[in-house]
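Quick one: structure tokens for this chain, please?
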Amino acid sequence: MSKPVLFSGIQPSGQLMIGNYIGAIKPWLAMQDDHDCLFCLVDLHAITVRQDPEQFRTQVLDALALYLACGLDADKSVLFLQSHVPQHCELAWILNCFAQIGQLNRMTQFKDKSQKHADNINAGLFTYPILMAADILLYQTQKVPVGHDQKQHLELARDLAIRFNHYHGNIFSIPEPNIPEHGARIMSLQDPSKKMSKSDDNENSVIRLLDMPDIIVKKLKRSVTDSENNIIYDPKNQPGVANLLTLLALASDQSIAECESQLAGKGYGALKTQTAEAIVAMLAPLQSSYQAIREDELALLSILQRGAEQASQRARHTLQKAQQALGMITL
């Protein structure tokens, strides 16, 4: 039997952070052997926000090097850049013609990003979820690892696939979400009511994968907790403590209950210290291998070339099926 197809992508704008690793990349590692995996750097999504060209090119290669340093294997999975496969944009236009304005108006991320980038509310920001749907449907994806904040976009992809199939036959697979029980939503260290983001203006809010140990320790010491001084997992009433317990559990491969037990009777200082130590230990191997990988730029470009060829071959097949179902003439 063929392996189930899994697709996921991360924007290469800004340096990848611990939320990307714990919530996305680390779970991917366990899926490479029993899934047909495609992992994409979605650079087209990233340009909905203005990017510095030279910095952006560097960030794309940085992100690929981090993918590899984290353990993603170009011999097991397809690693590629979204803009290298033009079928993403071609299918996105077709799906534009099946999406309803009302659906796009309900997208909460558009509302959030419009407020954050009020001087650049462009059409790409509005139609972003349709391109995301094309990313997923193009490879007959069956599973999509997503955080809770992306579930709405995946629902749109499912709706578009179902709508297209209703009118034109069984063209697209209907993707299912794959959401980890813990870790899919790592919160800001300074505002635990919102998700940690690599684009946060406050550097103390985010732990980046290449942060040095002393920086990680400082950020954890400054992290927001509360005045309860009670180490229990209670996201509603103690979101800062719950976030640190989640980070500690995931970084040390323990359950949250085990972490609570170890810290029983201790103060928040102990929680922050143990969390920092666990994160430093978790990131040390990937940080040590990153530099050598990043220095070989020709090897990185070769991986992107191979990934583009592998992805394009599959993407062309799906796009042609969709075009022919619409009565378009394909060559």
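The chain has two domains: 5-179+297-325, 203-291.
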